[in-house]
Amino acid sequence: PALPTAMTDCCLCVCLRPSHHTRVVARLYPKGVTGLEPDLQPQSVGKLTTYAERQPKKLPKIAEHLSACAHRDLRRGRHGFVALAVRALSSLVDVCRGELETFEEPVLALIRELLRGEVTSLRVVAAGAVVAVLNAQDEVSDFDKFEPFLPQLLNMIGSPGANSSARSVRIAGLAALLALLQQVEKAALLGNIRRVLPPVLATLRKEGGRRAGGQRERDRG
């Protein structure tokens, strides 16, 4: 027998209603902005992490939804919204580190895409997310899982230029790489030391020389 019209309408309303986790994610995005603004910060991130702590089974869906939003906004050039999503994911990683294995796959996939990209601000934010994920590891990390990040981080460390943007890329890449080296097994570290050490030392010399030069200028003044 056909369902009564009122019941059908009610079922449609329930089916079309956004799920709780998508509503919580939607509150992260500030009103009155286009997503083109740089350095957007997530709003009400505390509500997101509290919900995730209370509903840990929802973490995979939350991470997948946030990652999907970031990929969509990346295609549309809304880099501010992409940075916002990455920062929200980093907060989830930090607060829900005990459940990280259940939702890290979409997080790592998004990080890889941003590190491979050419948007400086997003590469910096993604490198920060690498640090968050590595710091959330309770045990020695499997290097194979993070090895795809290595070429991009080395590329960031070797980024040319003396302006503040280039420096931020180098410093973010160096911070992520050092976090990676602290977490991996010694055997994996030794096997990659010839790839890692030269650009790290070059960057440290470059930044150290720049700071020393700046100090000499201040002393002369």
UniProtKB/TrEMBL annotation:
<dbReference type="GO" id="GO:0005886">
    <property type="term" value="C:plasma membrane"/>
</dbReference>
<dbReference type="InterPro" id="IPR049152">
    <property type="entry name" value="EFR3-like_ARM"/>
</dbReference>
<dbReference type="InterPro" id="IPR051851">
    <property type="entry name" value="EFR3_Homologs"/>
</dbReference>
<protein>
    <recommendedName>
        <fullName>HEAT repeat-containing protein 1</fullName>
    </recommendedName>
</protein>
<dbReference type="InterPro" id="IPR011989">
    <property type="entry name" value="ARM-like"/>
</dbReference>
<comment type="similarity">
    <text>Belongs to the EFR3 family.</text>
</comment>
<dbReference type="GO" id="GO:0072659">
    <property type="term" value="P:protein localization to plasma membrane"/>
</dbReference>
<dbReference type="InterPro" id="IPR016024">
    <property type="entry name" value="ARM-type_fold"/>
</dbReference>
<dbReference type="Pfam" id="PF21052">
    <property type="entry name" value="EFR3_ARM"/>
</dbReference>
